[in-house]
Amino acid sequence: MRSLMNSALIFVSSLFAFNLVFAQLPSNGNLAAKKEGKVHPAALQPGVKTPSKNESAKRALKAVEQPLASQELSIAERVHVGHLPCELGASVQMTADANAPGYFTLQSKGYKYRMKPVSTSTGAIRLEDEKAGAVWLQLANKSMLMDQKKGRRLADDCAHPDQVAVANDMKVNPPPALIDVSTPATEIQR
Asked: Where do the domains of the chain lie, and which CATH numbers do they carry?
């Protein structure tokens, strides 16, 4: 929560600085357009290329993103990337961001999320897109994508080849039950 507040504070501060610089630029014959907000400040300076809306959005996103802590980066190193087939013929594409270590893009039909690692107490790998409410959980044998805002799963039983191998091994050598009903304490009570 604190990092979210810090990010919001940095974002608001950068907007304030941007508006301050924008107000001090020479009119260069575009004063009316400048007041209406239709001209990018760089367009008012001769010889400067105006960035596209997409480039501006990417810069704003990068400005808000904070570098990740070492614990989050160690989680990111264990995230399975690539094309991951899921149940019912669905699939997702997980891609690491080369420019922002620890950040990932998760996309499939109808959605695209900007994910970052979050620490868990269970050891499961968890990635989140806080703004969209998307959560990616990666277990040893499968992964799933959930929409926390709508309270439903978007993709389930997604598996990297390493996870498929673990799932197959679990079928042959099942892990011990968490609650074993045939314990000596149970037999004594009879």
From this structure: 2-64 (no CATH), 70-172 (2.40.128.50)
